[in-house]
Amino acid sequence: MQNKEEIKKSKKQPKTNQSNSILRYSGMGLQMGAIMLLGAFGGIQIDKYFGIKNNIFTATLTILSVIIAVYLTIKDLIKNK
Asked: Domain range spanning residue 36?
């Protein structure tokens, strides 16, 4: 039989790993959101500056920022495996 200290240690270990995973994945989500927001905001500002009414820069930069965010997230997931 295991003593009480060994049981406590074995129970605490998964929670630490789980907490690290939660923080890591939530950080990745925040990073993705920030990249996409910056891309959309940048596109809006460029469209306003040049007086473009069909929002081509907003659409282009938003799509480009989504691609960059997904690329960085996949790169982090592969790196941290």
From this structure: 4-79
Q: What is the DSSP string of 24-53?
A: HHHHHHHHHHHHHHHHHHHHHHHHHHHT-S
Number of domains in the chain: 1
Structure tokens at 1: 């039989």
Phi/psi region, residue 55 (left: phi>0; alpha: psi -120 to 50; beta: rest), is left
For 25-34, write each residue's pLDDT tens digit.
899 999 999 9
What is the model's pTM? Answer: 0.75
3-state secondary structure of 68: helix
